[in-house]
Amino acid sequence: LLLNPTTAEHWIYKKFFQEKNVKAGSNTIVDNVCYIHTSYLDVDKKHHTRENWQLYEKGRKAYESFNLLTEQEKENCSQEIKRLHKWYEVVVLGGWLEKQEGTILNNWQEGEFDDSLPYIFGQDYGFDDPTTLVKVAIDKKKKLLYLDECFYLSGLDEGKIFEMNHKICKQNLIVGDSASKQLINSLRNKKGPDSKGINLIGAVKKAGSVLSGIIKLQEYTLIVTKRSVNLKNELNNYVWLDRKSDTPIDDFNHLIDPIRYALGYLDR
């Protein structure tokens, strides 16, 4: 039996761990059952990418530091430490969740956008699917990511997209979905009534960029404005399609994807 742990409600946990009084993460033999638990620590460092190793080690240090705190200190410690502790325990070490946490991005709360910070925009394109625009600002010191949904509309043609971008973004940077290269080039060549265009570039996409972008998003507390109704809906429905391959569903991502594009530019 080979598995990635899910929740303590799963029959495997109840039958093989709870009933047999076996501690999760153990490497032992109980009642002719051999338990083998592995993590990245069982793989030589040379077989990891430098980026992944640094990320896992950052999580490990936060995890170990958190476990040394008193209950009061744990309650009062930073949200970043709490997030890293939970992420390392569940995602990296393969711990069992106490309850189902199906959504990928639980690290968000409603709040006001901080307009004192520099900001840019992320954009996704569609026709039957919505074309979207989201305003994004980052506070690296406090690990806060401010998000404001600007529009989420289907059936927009090229002219309307330009008109709305020109009105909302002015000359502020927009990072768009680079899969729509022809559309981006066309939008960049347009001029508004003021004879000015828009500042639009395509997102940089590499192999594994979706997962790495999700991991980066999980490092921040997401501050979502009250009016961002569609974004909240996406955050409440964006789940893993396949946890074994770390593949998210290709849905409820029309705002989440452009947030990744913008964050990839801001947090370089």
Automatic annotation (TrEMBL):
InterPro entries: Terminase_L_C, Viral_DNA_packaging_terminase. Residues 124-263 form the Phage terminase large subunit C-terminal domain. This is Phage terminase large subunit C-terminal domain-containing protein. It comes from marine sediment metagenome.
